[in-house]
Amino acid sequence: MTRMRGFVTSTVGLTLLAACSTGEGEQTSGTAQNGTMAPMFEVDPLWPKPLPNHWILGSAVGVTVDSEDHVWIVHRQNGNIRTELGAAADPPSGECCLPAPNILEYDQEGNLLSSWGGPGEGYDWPESNHGITADHMDNLWIGGNGGPDAHILKFAQDGSFLMQFGTPGANTGSDDRNNFGRVAKIAFDPTANEAYIADGYGNRRVAVIDMDSGELKRYWGAYGNPPDDDVALDSYNPNDPPAQQFRNPVHCAEPTNDGLVYVCDRPNDRIQVFQKDGTFVQEIFVAPETLGDGSTWDIAFSRDPEQRFLYLADGKNMKIYIIERETMTILTTFGDGGRQPGQFFAVHSIATDSDGNIYTTETYEGKRVQKFVYRGLGPVTAENQGTVWPERGQ
To answer: The pTM is what?
Structure first.
C-alpha cells in the first residue's frame, strides 16, 4: 500500500516532486528532471468543423472514441434562451441559434457524422445527462447527475435504445444494489464483461456491474472500505487528514490493462488506485490546494499496450496533466484558462484515439469540444506548457 501525499511543483528548474509514504516513516520521491521525455501535443484550431442548422453546444459533459476512431460527445441543451438560443424562443427572437441534439458523432477530420439523443419511448432520459462511453461492442452508455437520476442508459450507435439499469428517483444510497446515485461516468473491462460506475454525485462509491444483466457484482468506497453516507464531511481542507470517504462527485473510475482501477475523487484533489476487486493500492494528490470543484476531473490513458501515460483533466485549474503511470510522476501540463483554441473553461472530460490524439470537452460556459494532435515523444522544457499552439507552417 502506498500513499502519495501530494504533488509539489518546485520553484527551481523542472523538478516535480510527489511525496510518497511507502511504509512506516519512509519517504520517497518521484521526480521529473531535465531530459525527461513526454508525449507532446498541439491543438487543432480548425477541429471540429462548424455545426449545421444554426446548432450550438451547451455544457459538454462527456467524450469517447469508438473502435473506428469516431468521436462521440454528449452535451446539455442548456444555452441561454435570450443570449444564445433566440431561434428556439417562443416566438423566435432571431435567426440563431438552436440547441444541437444531445449526442454528436464526429470523424477524426471533424466532420459531423450523426446526431441524436433526448427523451424517447421505453427509457427515461436523464434529467441532466452526464458522461458518455463506448464499450467494446461500440454501444454507448450514458449516466446522469440530475436530482432523480438513479439510472444508466445503453444505446446502439444509431440511437436505438438497448437497456436501462436503475429507476429514476429510486436510489436509497451507497448500499443500493439496484439503483445508482447520479452517475458521473461509466468505463469497461471487456475481458470480464464488467462496467465500472463512478457513482457519483449522490453516492460515494465505485460500483461494478455485469454489462449484460446490470447485476451489481461489487462496490467500494475510499480506501476500499464500505461507503458510508452517514459520515458528515465538511468542505475539503488541504490541511486536514485525508478524508476516509469519497466526496461527491466520484467523477471517474477507469480500469487498465494491468488490472488496476484509477478513481477520480474530485473534490478531494486525489486519484485513488485500486485492484479490480476493490483492494486499495495508493492515492495521489494533485494540486492539493485546489478548493471547490477540485482538481481530478477525468482520466484517459495513452494507447500503447502498457498504457504508459495517464492524462488527467483538471477543470478547476484549466489544464491537462501528463503523468507517467508507473511512478505517478507529473511530467508536464498543457492548457490555460481562456476562450481561444488550446485554452480551457472547465475542461470536463478527456479521451484518446488510436493515433494518440486527445479530445476534451468543456462544461459550464465552456461548451465545446477540442482536439489535441499527438506529436510524439519530446523533451520536457516546461513544467506548464500553457497553450500548445501549432507552429506556423505545419
So the answer is: 0.92
